[in-house]
Amino acid sequence: MKIAKIIVDVPSMQTDKPFSYVVPEALETLVAIGMRVHVPFGRGNRLMQGFIVGFESQELVENQGNRLQDLKVIAEVLDFEPVLNAEQLALADKMRETVFAYKISILKAMLPNLLNSSYDKVLTALDPQVASDYFENADEIHFSSLDEVMQATMMKLQREGKVSVRYVAQSKETIKTKKVVSLTNHAQLLALTISARAKKKLAMQTFLQHEPEGKVWDNTELVALFSRDVVKFFIGNGVLTLSDVEVSRSQDYFENIETDTQKTLNAEQKAAYEAIITSQDKPFLLEGVTGSGKTEVYLQVIAHVIDAGKTAIMLVPEISLTPMMTSRFIARFGENVAIMHSGLSDGEKYDEWRKIAAGKAKVVVGARSAIFVPLANIGAIIIDEEHETSYKQDSNPRYHARDIALLRAQYHGAALVLGSATPSLETRARAQQGVYQLLRLTQRANQAAQIPEVRLLDMRKHLNDKSASFSQVMLDKIAEKVSKKEQVVLMLNRRGYSSFIMCRDCGFVPECPNCDISLTLHMDTKTLNCHYCGHTQGIPYTCPNCQSNKIRYYGSGTQKVEEELQELMPEARILRMDVDTTKKKGAHERILSSFGAGQADILLGTQMIAKGLDFPNVTLVGVINADTALNLPDFRASERTFQLLTQVAGRAGRAEKSGEVLIQTFNPDHYAIKLAQTHDYEQFYQTEMAFRRKLAYPPYYFTVQLVISHKNEEITVKKSYEILSLLQAHLTDKARVLGPIAKPIARTHNLYHYQLLIKYRFEDHLADALNDVLDLTQLRENKELRVMIDSEPQNFM
DNA sequence: AGCACGCCGACT
DNA sequence: GTCGGCGTGCTC
Prior knowledge:
Blueprint: E1 3-8, E2 19-22, E3 36-41, E4 46-56, H1 58-63, E5 72-73, E6 76-77, H2 86-98, H3 103-109, E7 118-125, H4 128-135, E8 140-142, H5 148-159, E9 163-170, E10 177-183, H6 186-191, H7 199-209, E11 216-218, H8 219-225, H9 228-236, E12 240-246, H10 267-277, E13 284-288, H11 294-307, E14 311-315, H12 323-333, E15 337-340, H13 346-357, E16 363-366, E17 378-383, H14 401-412, E18 415-420, H15 425-433, E19 437-441, E20 453-458, H16 472-483, E21 487-491, E22 500-503, E23 520-522, E24 527-529, E25 536-538, E26 551-554, H17 558-568, E27 574-577, H18 587-596, E28 602-605, E29 618-623, H19 637-649, E30 660-665, H20 671-677, H21 681-695, E31 702-710, H22 713-730, E32 736-748, E33 751-760, H23 766-778, E34 786-791
Parallel strand pairs: 2-5, 13-18, 13-19, 14-16, 14-17, 15-16, 17-18, 20-30, 21-28, 21-29, 27-28, 29-30
Antiparallel strand pairs: 1-2, 1-4, 3-4, 3-6, 7-8, 7-9, 10-11, 10-12, 22-26, 23-24, 24-25, 31-33, 31-34, 32-33
This protein binds a DNA duplex through strand 1, strand 2 and strand 3.
GO molecular function, one term: hydrolase activity
Keywords: ATP-binding, DNA replication, DNA-binding, Helicase, Hydrolase, Isomerase, Metal-binding, Nucleotide-binding, Primosome, Zinc
Cofactor: Zn(2+)
């Protein structure tokens, strides 16, 4: 008897371990580690998806106190080939040491969504009365298709024994196919006698006679040429054979892309390239100013890796993963490229994944989760814009792609390259210590392109200008550029600063009923939306508080600024790009290509325009509000501001025309803004490191954040202190715990949130402490309590 | 997560 | 006396 160890799809503390199941005899030689199965689980034997993570001997099972006859049998093996390989399973084990998440969540994160089964219950009527009342003509009803009231009714009927329930688990993957016909019997074709009246058939016979045996057509193509019946006739006579052929759902991005050849590297690029390809297992930090040609270095490193018969992973931040960006890789590597990003449908992602798993892709370009792709024989892993916080997943499992990359690079002996113009302090500090090898690109690759001049506009002096959002200098400059037929990019850093409505008489601001946050005004849909829980309501005409009709709109969201700018410059053509205008698939690309084609003068957008845009005609970049990120309660606020401003400044003057950058700020003396003005990363690094050291923040200290949530504020506070003392019992006095304090947004989704922040350098018992916290949350009295543990948090909002 | 077992209150 | 409320513990 073969016994498999299986991790089941129940994310809870008590089930976070392998369960033993008997492998059906017929499948004994076919099952393998890493395959998905369906197994009966729990008293109800509901079917669950699980992953085989190992096999066990009978003696071992019995030693664990299980009787063999009590073991259940695997209901279904879902795969012919394992979906997780040995490396991925080992990686999951390693991840569990640092990422506080259940094994099953980690395993599921490594696979495309379609490979995770969906569950349902199928109901059958046992009572004729029930059958006619509820089932109409159907033999079975799917539980999930019913509304809540009917679901309750069915549960009651089930208890009364009038309805039976069967659990089903279903793997969702589908392989897209198309029908093709192939010419398989030429002799038969010639032998056919066709009536002279059947013109279409005769025509097709003649057509086929001139085609070689074995030729393949799309079924639809032939049907269009002749007709369905005629094609069917030849299939029926054995001349043609109809078959299904697998098609990839994402082939179209290979079309219309011209191939591209390597560019010559300058001396700095060359040196970096040489260092990377002769890698001695130390990771690299490639620190290069915007426009210094980091991407060309990446491309050539990847080309080198492919020539050596290996593969590569290229990670870029989600918002940079535009067709414009991916086409550079496709242009260089053609069909060797697979793209993985969230814009793809589940089916498309699955197809890309299979292409990779089958070894048909040599280069994977993707966002965070692409770090898990089942590439074999990896020669290089490159993380561009390494400082981007989107590399850290902000829901379970809270992994950082950089950490995973480190593990995978180690496993494969691959070169790891972290690239950025403004590296995160953590990474830069490691380079300083010699943990990473620092490679610098200090010159723009395009010699003609000058580093743009940056001017700061002190908004304190412009408060009386006629516009709320723009200083006169900025307006004049924009007008000048527009009249010269040059283009302008304006960035509105909207974070934590959206438009809202307020009553002029009593100061009332509508807030979300579930969250402690004012609602954001959306003029396009004429609604007030909560950006945290998604609550939507209409815009009141009179104040709900004092019935005054003096409701006014405040703040400067992109919509508001667009309207204002349009009013001030009626002749300018403005394109707006933010989450609202780019929601639809391909919208992002459409906006950019229309701007690139000169169909607009001004591109107004949020942070997403700071990344990688490269338009030669853009000669002015304006930042409308540089300070909003600066005032956030986050120790990385300065770092974020500096990175963002440096990046957006790099958008100007990419070609022959020289560029200008104007930054509007209320804090012109702040070091993050002043040093962004002079493009002085090195000075910023030194200054910021001094602060971090003084305040004991990363990279000098490690951090773990705990967020405690409960619907009752008092309980939240009480439990937070309980957890605090639990932690202190394990931690040395060298560790510092901040809090509990209310989160900046104290209530969302009807829950109060308090946070604790542990700062430490060496704590042997940290894991024990956190496990104790988890145990605490498992107590029944804490059922309603939610505790989130985040190692090295990136966001404190 | 979801289900059964089991121990207490409101009814036939 | 029973039906059913949900608190507690377990799932190979």
